Amino acid sequence: MYKSQKIIGLSLAVGFMLIGCGQTGDPEIIMPDTPMQPSAAINGGVEVEAAATGEAQTEPAAQAAGSGEAHTVYLITMDLADSYWQSIDQGCRQAAEELGNITYRWIGPDTHDDALQSACIDQAVSEGADAILIAANSAEGVNGSLQAAAEAGCKIIYVDSAASFDCVTALATDNEAAGGTAAESMKTALAEKGITSGTIGVMGVTQDTASCVARENGFRAAFEGTDFVLADTVYMMDDASNIRNAVTAGQGQGYVAYFGTNEGTSVAIGEAVKESGRDDLVVGFDTSDAMLALIADGTAYATMQQNPERMGHDGMVIAVQAMEGTYTDTNTKTDTGVTVITADSM
């Protein structure tokens, strides 16, 4: 179970919060495989705030279930750049339209930073959020703000990446298992090329991004007992040049393959390999247009496709259920799964 943490204080001023938050727009697995539906029908529109401009738009909502009570729900991601987060946002919007009577807003910091993401949580609370869907930047770094949010009555739902603070539910990829799947894909490709040993480069986001660290752990575990050596992880730290420089250095040392733990690192690896004109093996994560283009042209061998839209959609539905008292479990978890995407499967 996730452990409640003692509050560490709220010392960030509102002005800092607004600057820090860029704007756009093991418990048992007991959650269902299909999206959950609340219990009663309502009609109405959904106010979906375009947070980048401060404007709001009213979109038609399908007949959906709920009590008819209006709710305010915020999505807070690690940053606002990756298309992966945009997919979670799309899932949230779809569910909000279906449910009706939802004021929904997506915010997040401009860079991976616990203090900035905490400021976003504080902002959501100050603006009247009833529930927060969050992809936590780290396991511990935002717990103080999450506890303050819970004390203010907010329901906490994790999407993609959980902190260690108690929640209603967490919807995410089983990241360690997914890292193992990525490793098995790479082993297959290496065997096809007749490569039985050598050094593999591993690229991550930050040392504190729990989801990516779990993927790396699963990947490394799958190579234990083989003749391959996995290099120390190089972290992007919001600067793609760190990855590109590491790939260049790895090529100079004869690395046989590269693994990226998320969309940003995977694309940076692929672009570096492509620019070099070499035929290095690349396996990564996520399915942005840029990553799929690298798969299609043969630069990257495989990528792990997650289900971010489902995370957003089902997270929104369960948030409303929790607010209305029809979902009463806590600290539940579901693996939303991965699919291996190669050029042959596209």
Summarize the structure in words.
With 346 residues, the protein is of the alpha/beta class. The protein has 2 domains: 188 residues, Rossmann fold; 131 residues, Rossmann fold. The chain contains 10 helices and 18 strands. The strands form 3 sheets. Strands 1, 3, 4, 6, 7, 8, 9, 10 and 17 form a 9-stranded mixed beta sheet that branches. Strands 11, 12, 13, 14, 15, 16 and 18 form a 7-stranded mixed beta sheet that branches. Helix 3 runs parallel beside helix 4, helix 5 packs across helix 6 and helix 7 packs across helix 8. The relative contact order is 0.16. The N terminus is likely disordered.
Q: Report the helical percentage.
A: 25-40%
What structural category do the secondary elements indicate?
alpha/beta
Under the CATH scheme, the architecture of the largest domain is 3-Layer(aba) Sandwich
**The CATH class of the largest domain:** Alpha Beta
The value of Rg in angstroms is 21 Å
Count every helix, treating DSSP H or I runs of 4 or more residues as helices. Answer: 10
- The portion of residues forming beta strands comes to 15-25%
Largest sheet: 9 strands, mixed
* Number of domains as seen in the coordinates: 2
Q: How would you describe the shape?
A: elongated
CATH superfamily of the largest domain: Response regulator
Secondary-structure topology with pairs:
Elements lengths: L13 H7 E4 L16 E2 L3 E5 L4 E5 L4 E2 L5 E6 L6 H17 L2 E8 L4 H13 L4 E4 L8 H9 L3 E5 L9 E4 L2 H18 L5 E7 L5 H13 L5 E3 L3 E2 L4 H13 L4 E4 L2 H14 L4 E5 L3 H8 L5 E4 L2 H17 L7 E4 L3 E4 L4
Parallel strand pairs: 3-7, 6-7, 6-8, 8-9, 9-10, 10-17, 11-12, 11-13, 11-14, 14-15, 15-16
Antiparallel strand pairs: 1-7, 2-5, 3-4, 16-18
